[in-house]
Every structure is written in structure tokens, then in C-alpha cells.
Amino acid sequence: MTNPEDIKNLVNDITNFVNSYTADEKQFIEQMSREHRTLQQSFTRLVLRWIEFCASEDYQYDLRNQDSHTICKTLVKSFREAMKLDEDTASDLPNWLSFV
Predict the structure, then answer these.
(1) How many separate domains does the chain show?
(2) Is residue 55 in some structural domain?
């Protein structure tokens, strides 16, 4: 199990990366694409969980991150429509990815 301090440090590393005007997102994507395919799937699952959370009403937002909330809500809604899920069916995007 991952140590909470390790998670905090990882989040700090990620936020430092995205907070930089010189963040090389293309290089990050290129490096991630070289990781093991199962790890890529796990990373995608994490990103989808973040998208679902940002789309939820539990997500605290203001004018600085309102677009994140709006875009994530649109992504989740589009996913539900594409998968023909009704409002009462939990979408749980990450669980649509297969586990290896």
C-alpha cells in the first residue's frame, strides 16, 4: 500500500510540474507512452477518476477552475450518452477500462 506521505509528495511533484510555464507536456506524454502498457492503463484510470471527481458537485471550484468543472461535466455527460447510460446508472468511467 502506498504511504500517504508518498502520495503527498507525488501530488506536490505533479502540481510543481503543471505550475511551471516551461512544463513540457509533450515530453511528459512521450515518456508516459513508453511505460508498460498496463501502467498506461492504470494512469488513464487515475485520470478518469480525476475527471469524474471534477465533474461532481463535490468538486470545489471558483472562477479559476470553473472551466475544469464545466469541461469535465461535458466529458462525463458525453460518455454517458455514447454508452447509452440513463441518469440513474452510475457511469464510473474508470471501471469501463479493463483490468489486466
Answers:
(1) 1
(2) yes
